[in-house]
Amino acid sequence: MAFFTGNANVELKDQKKVFGGQQLRFRHASNTLQCDMDFSVFLPPQAEVGKVPAVYWLSGLTCTDENFSSKAGAQRVAADLGVALIIPDTSPRGEGVPDDPDGAYDFGLGAGFYVNATEAPWAKHYQMYDYIVDELPNLVESGLPVSDARAISGHSMGGHGALVIGLRNSERYSSISAFSPIVNPINCAWGKKAFAGYLGSDERKWRQYDASVLLQERDNRSHDIPPILVDQGDADNFYPEQLRTETLIAVNTETSAGAKIRFQEGYDHSYYFIASFIEEHLRFHASNLR
Amino acid sequence: MAFFTGNANVELKDQKKVFGGQQLRFRHASNTLQCDMDFSVFLPPQAEVGKVPAVYWLSGLTCTDENFSSKAGAQRVAADLGVALIIPDTSPRGEGVPDDPDGAYDFGLGAGFYVNATEAPWAKHYQMYDYIVDELPNLVESGLPVSDARAISGHSMGGHGALVIGLRNSERYSSISAFSPIVNPINCAWGKKAFAGYLGSDERKWRQYDASVLLQERDNRSHDIPPILVDQGDADNFYPEQLRTETLIAVNTETSAGAKIRFQEGYDHSYYFIASFIEEHLRFHASNLR
User: Fold this and answer.
1) Which sites are catalytic (chains A, B) (predicted)?
2) The listed CATH number (3.50.50.60, 1.10.3720.10, 3.40.50.20, 3.40.50.1820) that belongs to domain B19-289
3) Rounded to an integer, what distance in angstroms lies between the CA atom of residue A117 and that of residue A107?
4) Which residues of A touch B18 (CB under 8 A)?
């Protein structure tokens, strides 16, 4: 199978067979992020004979596209369901892309928070919201056997990204799910640091990137919202302070939004948690993908 | 659940819930290896109510106990089958343990080759054969809800280890399997370097650690041999030169040993290959474990 035929901007870096499908890694020159970006894709066997729907996976702090690819065991289920997995990096990368001046893990490289930065020096490269919503799916759907039937999921910072992007673009995603998401970043330390840095001190600008605010502002228009599934481990070191799951639960109840938010006893914040429940998430998405 | 109660030599370093069971990481002072060693264990949910049988997994060059734990997706199947996974490191470790003088990946740390070294300076610590055959199972069975019903499996150098240890101790293992094993190390570059270093220049001493030689020397006594399953990817960069699969196939045919040796089209040497077929291997072992 050839990929991105005629597109000199995309390079195939790695290709491995897994569960009868193909685990692929590409590098491309991103216009949105003004740097070269890697992303991984799993194509199920069904992609050999036609376009397949896709689950976009957004990873958490410090991750790249490789963590989910190697640790979640998602390819087995995706191969069974005939669903592609599209796995971007978590921030712009490379020389010239500024990082946290102290090298902190929760800002800068590996910590793009899926927002469009407005503040210097971040605004030039840190446009992850537009990259995930527009540039990456346009690229994938132009050069791979992947249709525009999309679902979105993610973990922690990526769970925040999946909820925010899915809620703000409900016409583009048929379902949303998240593991251990940061559901109310305007009220936790991770979110406050990231949003103050990328978006500036005017907290009104932060609200467009807060899942709980977005759900609240939709009020009772629950028919507009894609089906949502959230799993949260109750042995998670970052729960409740950074994740604030109860805020989402309250808004979900108040607005009758219909999100399914579950606690999983004894599970922590790691990929072992994701591996344990990714099958349920992918089957949830597949049942909603056209 | 308490582990290794009353044994001050064993420290629990990490514990995570996965697929309803427990992924555990321990450190202990090894008498055999004369150093502290880490090992990982997956206990399925069934271990809460009684002893469970175990599959021992031997990893390949450069690996620790963590590669298989995080990348193979084996816990899902082991939880379903009620089988423990016992995952040792691939060599002695720590200060005072000598490494390859050039820091090569294929000798010394991460490359113990599951032999008992006889040559200085390796002999003091590099006794991985005895560690895997005796010390580790004795420790595990004394302090965890794991029975002495054992199977053994591994990848590459660890596939070599599983075949050699299983063939030489057929009373201790009810089945053997391997992914991409080095089946004839006395005739490949990896094996010649390792065996010359650990065992000296007398090649007659190498033969006790060569799966093809061991199978050949059993001749037609195939009733002594545990059931064997081998999977080899035909897109593996190390096939055929380092792995020499055809040698094992020829001996298996000649001696009617009954090993099932399969080629898997398009798969390489990576953990994506292992992940794709670990379910079949674990079900094979479970069907043979008492």
Assistant:
1) 156, 236, 269
2) 3.40.50.1820
3) 12
4) 272-273, 275-276
